[in-house]
Automatic annotation (TrEMBL):
InterPro entries: AAA+_ATPase, ABC_transporter-like_ATP-bd, ABC_transporter-like_CS, ABC_transporter_ATP-binding, P-loop_NTPase
Biological process, per Gene Ontology: response to antibiotic
GO cellular component: plasma membrane
Subcellular location: Cell membrane
Name used for this protein in its record: ABC transporter ATP-binding protein
Membrane topology: Peripheral membrane protein
Residue ranges of domain ABC transporter in the record: 7-232
Keyword presence, Heme: no
Source organism of the structure: Lolliginicoccus lacisalsi
Matching PROSITE patterns: ABC_TRANSPORTER_1, ABC_TRANSPORTER_2
Pfam families per UniProt: ABC_tran
Major subcellular site: membrane
Length: 306
């Protein structure tokens, strides 16, 4: 992965009348990486992507794709960009092969239809009418068209919505291959597992504002790791006083006394709890160690707690 910026967004704004839908969003994506833009419905993700593509007029800020303004030089930007929209539009009566050939005739990029369809596992469907494809197969066709000619930038707006787990994993593999080949990927998704699987960096938008942005490790560092321990037997009222940087919450789970220990250092907090229990003759039952998750960070921001 190089440090060459393919997409650069600075203080981006979009206004609908008196409503400011996107407010000062800034991020960048370098060649060969996947940047995932996350957020609840209506957070401003799709509007941001539309401004990156030059399809929507921005109210403020700047966008550069390949160093060009997509509003001033749309042809240059579109020649190097492939897009999967939330809902693809195809002629249902024509075949998969004819759909790809039609797209090829409208594109300045060159590729081989058989190769592209093989990569998305549609080689056996070339003669099938698009209207006869399953939902997962249609999304793979959308991706085949977006990746035609190996564009420098691929924009994926919720590309796996409605897919079964196996189809989703196939899409992930293809997207990973595109990154490895040097394409930059801008992704929006409601599947946080998908972002964790694909993204090198993530940004979470809430009410038009980019609330957090960074590598997955940097974003997760904002939340502590958690150790959950059930107590089998202990003296009445036993729970040790935690050291600095460690918190403990006492409760019940499955009808058993339980302590939830949170700390930035998961190993340190687990070791501390086990040592305290051993010194006090306390018998611990099930112990579960969970690192911070993107799901926790997302819901904290969506709930207005960040």
């Amino acid at each position: 992965m190089s440090n060459e910026l393919v997409v650069e967004v600075d203080s981006l704004e979009c206004r609908y009348g008196d409503f400011l839908a996107v407010r000062g969003v800034s991020f960048g994506a370098v060649r060969g990486e996947c940047f995932a833009l996350l957020g609840t419905n209506g957070a401003g993700k799709t509007t941001t992507l539309e401004m990156v593509q030059g399809f929507r007029q921005r109210s403020g800020g700047s966008v550069r794709v390949f160093g060009r303004d997509p509003r001033e030089q749309p042809d240059v930007v579109r020649r190097g960009t492939g897009v999967v929209l939330q809902q693809g539009g195809h002629f249902g009566e024509i075949s998969v092969r004819e759909t790809v050939n039609l797209h090829a005739g409208l594109s300045s990029r060159r590729d081989d239809a058989a190769r592209v369809l093989e990569r998305v596992d549609l080689a056996h469907k070339t003669g099938t009418a698009v209207q006869s494809l399953s939902g997962g197969e249609r999304r793979r066709l959308d991706l085949a068209l977006a990746m035609w000619g190996s564009p420098e930038l691929i924009i994926l707006d919720e590309p796996t919505t409605g897919l079964d787990p196996e189809s989703r994993k196939r899409m992930w593999q293809v997207i990973g291959d595109l990154k490895a080949a040097g394409s930059t990927v801008l992704l929006t998704t409601h599947y946080l597992e998908e972002a964790e699987q694909l993204a090198d960096r993530v940004g979470i938008v809430h009410e038009g504002v980019l609330a957090v942005e960074g590598t997955l490790e940097e974003v997760l560092a904002s939340r502590p790791a958690r150790v959950v321990a059930e107590v089998v037997s202990a003296p009445p009222g036993w729970w040790p006083q935690p050291p600095a940087g460690v918190s403990i919450t006492v409760g019940d789970q499955r009808g058993k006394p339980t302590g939830v220990v949170e700390a930035a250092d998961q190993q340190r907090s687990m070791l501390w709890l086990v040592q305290q229990a051993d010194e006090a003759g306390v018998e611990l039952g099930m112990i579960r160690a969970n690192p911070a998750s993107l799901d926790e960070v997302f819901h904290q921001i969506a709930g207005g707690q960040a």
